[in-house]
Amino acid sequence: MTEEADAAARERAEVAAFRASLGLDTLIDVHTHFMPERVLAKVWAYFEAAGPLIGRHWPIAYRHEEERRLDVLRGFGVRAFTSMLYPHKPGMARWLNDWAADFAARTPDCLHTATFYAEPSAYDDVRRALDQGARVFKCHLQVGGYDPNDPVLKQVWGLLEEARAPVVTHCGSGPVPGPFTGPEPVAALLARHPRLRLVVAHLGMPEYEDFLALAERHGDVMLDTTMAFTSFTEAEAPFPRAALPRLAALQDRVLLGTDFPNIPYTYAEALRGLRETGLGTEWLRAVCHDNAARVFGI
Prior knowledge:
Blueprint: H1 3-22, E1 27-29, H2 37-48, H3 66-75, E2 78-82, H4 93-106, E3 110-111, E4 113-115, H5 122-132, E5 136-140, H6 141-144, H7 154-163, E6 167-170, H8 183-192, E7 198-200, H9 208-217, E8 222-224, H10 231-234, H11 244-249, E9 254-255, H12 267-275, H13 281-296
Parallel strand pairs: 1-2, 2-3, 4-5, 5-6, 6-7, 7-8, 8-9
Helix pairs in contact: 1-12, 4-5, 5-7
């Protein structure tokens, strides 16, 4: 066995032990990235070059071709996952959604994912994606650089609210602030669409407590754990330990997310960080499987 294969086997064993300790056969990860290969290659190059929206060295831990990435994720016992993808300019969303629809059709364990951009075609793009079977959407306010309250999106949010489709939203100001990141734009959005099933990515880092407060006020707001509690994140945007009881109280609205494969550490480390919160087996079981199973009817 090669050194790489041996390391991969050890990681699978560690993840399996983590699942077993929770009494779980499988995990559900709501924040994973699968994209057209040429798009993903550009994303990886941007990360590895520490582009302006990244701000630090960020090697890609799972820089493999698509089938191998799927094998790795399934090898960790992940029974359902997403294909988070996002446009950075107008005119991208529809063809990204068409790719995602095809990917979901040939990848039954993928939760059919779609996206949108603040542009005149946004309503038609989202309506079309829903008709294609999209079950979850990605909204990246940092990369997209748009205001979620842009009038061009008014009907989009109403449609998503009516459809009860979860929208995983990068709205926190990490790793680098954008013109419309932070809690204020999201608070304004939720004031107009209080039944929107918004999933705050990365627990809203670094504005963790502000986004906890939004979830406490809005019963349909959820949070995902992507990158939280890892040594990589804790070095620059540590989760405030005094806020852990508030995160514990939101046990039924926190979902496992990892950013696989675009992470600079192992999948096992992401799970290890969650365990080290000390929030306990019941919380971990809900976060790593049961909440997402309920939300997506799995």
